[in-house]
Amino acid sequence: MALDIDLQADLLVQKIKHYLITTMGVTIDEANYRQLYHALSLTFREEIMINWTATGHTFLHKHVRQIYYLCMEYMPGRLSKNNFVNMNALPLVKLILNKLNRNFEQVLRNEYDPGLGNGGMGRLVSCFLDSLATQNYPSRAYGLRYQYGIFDQEIWEGTQVERPDPWLMYENPWEFRRDDHSFPVLYAGRLMPTVNKKGVEIADLADYEEVRALAYDIPIIGYSESADFSVSTLRLWTTKESPRNFQLQRYNAGQLGQASENTTLTDVLYPNDHHETGKRIRLKQEFLLVSASIQDIVNYYLRNYSDMSLFADKVRIQINDTHPALVIAELLRILIKDHDYGWGEAWETVKTCCSFTNHTILREALEEWNSARLSYLLPRQYQLIEKLNLEFCSAIRRQFPGDEERVRRMSMLEGGQVKMAHLAIYGSHKVNGVAALHSEILKKRLFKDFYEMYPERFINITNGVTQRRWLLLANPLLSEFISARIGHKWITDFTTIKELAQCAGDAESQKRFLEIKAHNKMQLIAFLQEKNPVRDGHGHVIGHSSSLGEDALFDVQIKRFHEYKRQLMNALHALILYHELKENQNVRPIKRMIIFGGKAAPGYEMAKNVIHLIFCLARKINTDTAVNQKLRVAFFENYNVSKAEIIIPAADLSEQISTAGMEASGTGNMKLAMNGALTIGTEDGANIEMRQSITDAWWPFRFGATAEENERRSINQSYQPLEVYHRHQAIKKAVDALRNGFLSENDTEHQVLSDIAGTLLEERHGNRPDRYFVLSDLESFYEVQKKVEQLYLQPQKWAEYAIHNIAGMYLFSSDTSIHNYAKLEWDLQQCPIDQQELTRVRAEYSEHDKCRIR
Ligand code: 26Q
Most buried residue, 84, 159, 319, 791, by CB count within 10 Å? Predict the structure, then answer.
């Protein structure tokens, strides 16, 4: 029997007081907000620990197959509120804080947002973990516990400045140091040839460098309306905390940097997406993840089984992008060396266990490692890759006799480089892209040769996002709106969101939808005006962003800065609008608030230039009283998951305007559409499937060249941006404004803006002008933006479209993606928490302790 909520709250208040005193030595009246946050988290943690323990026992006792997810990046967002939401305990927490006379949001703001990833991929896998836990799939995720996640971004008079992310400033109540889970990881050294019991040659290692990886676990709470929620594990490795990793001999020899290299391996996340860096420490990081995780997986398996005969049945490993692809060589090695597998059976086991997801189309993002570097740092793994490659090349020759060119193209070792994608495909039984178009491009272009050899391996699994964080948590009013109309099944079965279409034509629903949107926009405005700083050239805050009111169209582009994502096209469009409004205030019928957010890789000059352009634009437009009641531009500093939770519910228009054929999927497009924004988008990534599902009738703002057209233009080099420039007066005027000093206030700015114009019109470093087709698509973008304005003039009609868009998102929950992975790649069964086991653990936890959440 559940206790009365008021009584529960009183008991939990007691427990909070207990934690304040026993862990921080303060009483409730003197506790500050951070201390209260900590004690509140510790209090709810107890309940989570019970279910976590019982979930673990359930998986162990039922001998289920498990998926082990390997990824270098995670972006879970703040954990506390999500945990409360998924335990269905939010009202209880609010009641508790009410009783304590403390503000709920203010308490939760004390948590740092863990930015252990760059962007799309890291956030995607965090959505996947939510879905795995919620749907009771036996799973564990592995990653690295970066001391510094993605940098904190500040904009100093237009220039992006990177600051260290201090997410570990205070003790983190949601992580657990696991001293019993620590593994040695070996680098470098000399090969010592040996054979295993089956006579397979497999090298030993001498004179190696040993690093210890120590586990920190974060519980991932699955959503449940009752108290039987499953808890899965995100296990992050660190080298920081193991005193043995310090190399005293080197220190004594005066080599300070080298002495501490291994204690700093997990210090920093590499802040590049879509660009490989080839750095030694990055390779060490990748192998750390692989080696520690695979030892942990084998260890865990052997706790449960007396020999390795069921390993291939019980273990599935997901290689998330190529970054953990070395797991293929390392698993092969361990099976042969430590478990005396024959070569053939070891290789079959590797392929059965592993599958690989690719997340990028850009060739410059495909990972390669210098062979000399890899063979020096990882000699045993390199030797196996060489051997695998010989077998692989023979297999190619057998299937395509006489085609040596093909062998060269497909080889894992070519031109002194190790091609990680080739290793990943060869060692996996399934390879997937993340949206239909992307998966087709993999088959037809990027991995064409591999598709021809292994057609059955290539499949598509379209991305999805979790409606629990992105609706239930981030947009409570819209969640209520939905539940009031179709019930709350959508929380765990998003296909039912379809039913919302029935209310789209209903005037009352439209009105309520608009009220909710206006409310969310007001919250966003408050944030901009109070918390989004404007800084001078020294980083000093000299004010905050200004904004138009909630009646303006909120036009949002939030994502990493990259040329292919074309924030530049959006900025040029803003400039065109500005020019037009300058001539005649009334040419544009609506108010428009253009919002940008996103980080640029620190070394990516052109991406940083575009941020600077947006700053210059905002300065010009927002201070010009002739237009600033009609149009404004804001740049959201330090875009991250927490900021996304504020911006996305308030968006009217979602900018998904990548050069068609370049965005693998996109997931921001899904979050925004789910929250009732209409998409202005190219036919790229998952936009295409969203349009098909929402139907063309409710997808009015499609524009731009298709992926095929772009590919043709690239191949026959037919595109002439100058032609567009001379033909289209408004575009010409916008590009000219980058060069003629109209926007710049100093030499640096002039240089930055001229450079941007240069890439559009002139050949640079052997690159053709306007490689991303900004100017050509700007024409149709400009036209379709007029359609946006016409529709926005009819709010009820706009709302009807928006509700149809929400309803049409029924295919894009990460729950669906995970079902597809479970079915098509892992053959994995759901396994809910064992009730008896839960009861048993609860009893052991404390028979007398009635201080419980339920
Ligand atoms: C590679 C080598 C060295 C250092 C860093 C990297 C690196 C790191 C991150 C390369 C790529 C990434 C991230 C890629 C990424 O986020 N891709 C996005 O994945 C999303 C989820 O599938 C898609 O929706 C996006 O379209 C895709 O861009």
Answer: 319
Pocket-forming residues, ligand 1, beta carbon under 6 Å: 118-121, 124, 270, 272-274, 276-277, 282, 359-360, 365, 367, 434, 463, 663-667, 685
| H or E element, residue 511 | helix 507-531
User: 758 with 764: CB under 8 angstroms?
Assistant: yes
Q: Which of 666, 715, 686, 704 is nearest to 569 (CA)?
A: 704
Strand partners, 277: none
How far away, in angstroms, is 48 Cα from ligand 1 center?
32
Q: pTM of this prediction? A: 0.97
Per residue in 499-509, pLDDT (tens digit) is 999 999 999 99
Known catalytic residues are 359, 559-560, 565, 667, 671
Distance 56 CA to ligand 1 centre (A): 31
CA distance 380 to 113: 38
The secondary structure element, H or E, covering residue 46 is helix 33-61
Q: Which residue has the higher pLDDT, 706 or 249?
A: 706
Quick check: 781 and 653 in contact, CB under 8 A? no
Beta strands in 3-59 (DSSP E): none
Tell how far CA 16 is from the center of its chain: 33
Q: Where are the alpha helices (DSSP H) in 418-506?
A: 420-426, 436-441, 448-453, 467, 476-486
Question: From the CB of residue 409, how many other CB atoms can be counted at a distance below 10 Å?
Answer: 15
Tell the residue nearest (CA) to atom 3 of ligand 1: 276
Which CA distances in Å does 542 have to 281, 490, 537?
39, 45, 10
Residue 9: per-residue pLDDT: 95
In this predicted model, what pLDDT tens digit does every residue of 427-485 receive, in sequence order? 999 999 999 999 999 999 999 999 999 999 999 999 999 999 999 999 999 999 999 99
- Per the CB < 8 A criterion, the answer to whether 497 and 490 are in contact is yes
- For residues 800 and 505, the answer to whether their CB atoms sit within 8 Å is yes
